[in-house]
């Protein structure tokens, strides 16, 4: 029988000292940070015995990792691959934090009737998270690596002035100009209303195939799978339906480890969600850039209507990453780099990943060879401790 990887496991970071730091948002949600510290054995890292002293070298810097919608911090600590937390530890970054914000599958918020927007995340989730990190690390440099709607919402928080003091930002798949394939535009335009009012389903779950036979959830999973002959995993089919346009949409199959591409594992890594965020993403896709969801919401009066209006003023350098087979957010980061480079020439960078899709740059079996070194190089250059890295030929 195939080994079952435990849900929410930390087996992928056995050499780290792990501490959990819960905190509350201004709008009364409980969230959590998880800190992974690693002792490099006297090389200057801040491991279990390293304390919180300021260190001017790159291995004294802090890295914060942000997941996307339906996923969680689990994507950064997967035991079946060389995961991003472990890779950072091995490359001089001994103090790594992950944030499970309100989109995380660790919490019930995604499938509750309470409807959050990306403005809520930008305004309420990131400022207290960074304040909690600062309470422990002081004035050490903080770098952020973000994925999917974590990347979009954090970019909104940074460019909207809710957070500052970020040494560098890596955005995978999308940043401030969400663009999607044509079929995804159709789903975004009608999907939320169809689910809530026609199908009567309050959320979408990759595990719908496990619902009772002939229930609405089970029938939907069967219908979706009928259009996805590329593999036998219903959870893979549902995730393509939920998030993109392709067979599959979320990743390139061959980039995943065998243990990752199983029904339970995929559903563990990318769980259920309601449709509330789809409406905000749809508004942004129509606008061609990140915009506020509700202009009349008094809670977010301090956030800009257009999050790119201050692009020239934001000093944080950004690395925009995207797979050339991104069937979720298409060429979003290519378009974003074009706008940012015009606003602040030379400040930001774009790298296209041959043979990669949307999430496989994070969870792929060879991401530690093809992708993570690009992130590390960018971060270290912002810390002034390395020369530009020349990537080897990418695997396809």
Automatic annotation (TrEMBL):
Cofactor requirements of the protein: FAD
Q: Does the keyword Nucleotide-binding apply?
A: no
- One GO MF term: hydrolase activity
Q: Which keywords does the record carry?
A: FAD, Flavoprotein, Hydrolase, Oxidoreductase
| KW Nucleus (keyword) present | no
Query: Which InterPro entries does the record match to this protein?
Result: AB_hydrolase_fold, Cholesterol_Oxidase
Q: Which Gene3D superfamilies match?
A: alpha/beta hydrolase
- Domain of life from the UniProt record: Bacteria
PANTHER family, alphabetized: CHOLESTEROL OXIDASE, FAD-DEPENDENT OXIDOREDUCTASE 2 FAD BINDING DOMAIN-CONTAINING PROTEIN
The similarity annotation says: Belongs to the GMC oxidoreductase family.
Q: What is this protein called?
A: Alpha/beta hydrolase
């Amino acid at each position: 029988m195939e080994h079952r990887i435990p849900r929410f496991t930390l087996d992928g970071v056995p050499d780290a000292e792990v501490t959990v730091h819960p905190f509350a948002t201004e709008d009364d949600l409980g969230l959590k940070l998880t800190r992974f510290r690693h002792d490099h054995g006297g090389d200057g890292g801040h491991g279990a015995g390293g304390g919180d002293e300021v260190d001017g070298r790159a291995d004294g810097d802090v890295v914060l990792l942000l997941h996307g919608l339906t996923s969680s911090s689990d994507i950064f600590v997967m035991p079946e691959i060389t995961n991003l937390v472990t890779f950072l530890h091995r490359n001089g970054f001994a103090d790594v934090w992950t944030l499970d914000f309100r989109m995380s599958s660790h919490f019930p918020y995604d499938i509750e009737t309470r409807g959050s927007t990306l403005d809520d995340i930008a305004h309420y989730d990131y400022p207290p998270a960074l304040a909690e990190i600062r309470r422990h690390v002081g004035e050490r440099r903080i770098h952020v690596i973000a994925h999917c709607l974590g990347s979009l919402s954090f970019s909104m928080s940074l460019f909207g002035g809710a957070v500052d003091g970020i040494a560098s930002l890596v955005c995978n798949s999308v940043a401030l100009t969400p663009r999607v394939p044509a079929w995804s535009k159709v789903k975004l335009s009608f999907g939320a209303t169809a689910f809530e009012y026609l199908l009567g389903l309050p959320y979408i779950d990759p595990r719908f195939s496990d619902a009772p036979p002939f229930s609405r959830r089970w029938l939907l999973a069967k219908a979706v799978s009928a259009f996805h002959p590329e593999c036998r995993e219903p959870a893979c089919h549902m995730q393509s339906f939920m998030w993109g346009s392709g067979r599959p949409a979320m990743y390139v199959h061959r980039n995943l480890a065998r243990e990752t591409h199983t029904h339970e594992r995929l559903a563990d890594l990318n769980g259920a969600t309601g449709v509330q965020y789809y409406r905000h993403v749809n508004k942004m896709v129509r606008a061609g850039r990140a915009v506020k969801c509700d202009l009349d919401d008094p809670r977010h009066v301090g956030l800009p209507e257009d999050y790119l209006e201050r692009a020239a003023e934001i000093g944080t350098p950004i690395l925009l990453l995207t797979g050339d087979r991104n069937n979720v957010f298409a060429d979003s980061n290519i378009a974003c780099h074009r706008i940012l480079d015009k606003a602040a020439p030379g400040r930001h960078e774009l790298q296209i990943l041959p043979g990669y899709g949307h999430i496989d740059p994070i969870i792929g079996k060879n991401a530690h060879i093809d992708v993570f070194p690009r992130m590390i190089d960018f971060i270290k250059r912002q810390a002034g401790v390395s020369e530009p890295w020349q990537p080897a030929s990418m695997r396809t």
